[in-house]
Backbone:
């Protein structure tokens, strides 16, 4: 058991050599952690490493936001993927997450479990490393979570963030208020709800660290189901920004970020990344 824990620690935390031809391919594969799931009443679905805290590892937290009228059951690919790479994921079951309120409550629920002696998460989470990730309406919710949670969020990934015309008055967000690194992801075929023009405007409005890219051939709901081609760089971004993974960093930073030369992606850009 001690040997297994040590191996998991090395795979899940320390810098590792590439196990695939590209950074994207490496992180598109399932990670080294077996995944467990649990329901918290009807409010949240949890996805987390089954061997929590192996080798003394502290798991970063991800709070997830569903698209309009969607539930976590429609995103098994991305939610299980992130848990397999060592993240403790809490997904609100709410089908309207645009305000960010549901995602903030979910994040704080899991943060609180870290100090609850009766919880399996007790002492096993890194409550200083919390990310907000969401799709469509939930992408706006991820931005609102980051700007309205008092500095709780340290990394943001809005996937298929809707153009302003599609955002209801109660769900409005301001990317110009973001202080944590943000990766805007969308699809080249998502030309109505989250087109390149909107993604570029959002990227340009961020004052600090940001990146953006469009997955070729992807539409507005490609992230649902298996997660499609989004999994590799989504995982790499969170490993880079929340787990300090220097190999994953090469996808977005350095002299030639991999995503900029990847022919499966287009319109990639980065700024102010550490």
Residues:
């Amino acid at each position: 058991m001690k040997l297994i824990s040590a191996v998991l620690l090395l795979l899940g935390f320390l810098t590792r050599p590439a196990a695939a031809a590209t950074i994207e391919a490496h992180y598109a594969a399932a990670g080294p952690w077996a995944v467990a799931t649990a329901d918290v009443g009807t409010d949240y679905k949890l996805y987390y490493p089954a061997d929590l805290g192996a080798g003394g590892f502290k798991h970063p937290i991800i709070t997830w936001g569903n698209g309009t009228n969607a539930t976590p059951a429609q995103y098994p690919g991305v939610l299980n993927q992130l848990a397999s790479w060592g993240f403790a994921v809490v997904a609100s079951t709410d089908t309207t997450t645009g305000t960010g309120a549901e995602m903030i409550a979910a994040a704080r629920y899991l943060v609180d479990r870290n100090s609850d002696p009766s919880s399996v998460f007790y002492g096993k989470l890194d409550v200083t490393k919390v990310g907000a990730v969401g799709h469509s309406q939930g992408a706006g919710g991820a931005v609102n979570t980051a700007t309205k949670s008092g500095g709780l969020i340290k990394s943001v990934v809005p996937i298929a963030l809707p153009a302003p015309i599609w955002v209801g008055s109660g769900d409005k967000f301001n990317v110009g208020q973001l202080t944590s690194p943000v990766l805007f992801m969308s699809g080249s075929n998502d030309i109505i709800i989250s087109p390149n023009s909107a993604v570029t405007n959002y990227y340009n409005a961020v004052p600090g660290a940001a990146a953006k890219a469009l997955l070729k051939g992807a539409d507005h709901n490609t992230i649902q189901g298996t997660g499609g081609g989004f999994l590799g760089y989504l995982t790499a971004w969170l490993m880079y920004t929340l787990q300090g993974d220097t190999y994953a960093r090469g996808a977005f930073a350095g002299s030639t970020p991999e995503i900029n030369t990847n022919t499966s992606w287009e319109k990639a850009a980065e700024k102010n990344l550490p």
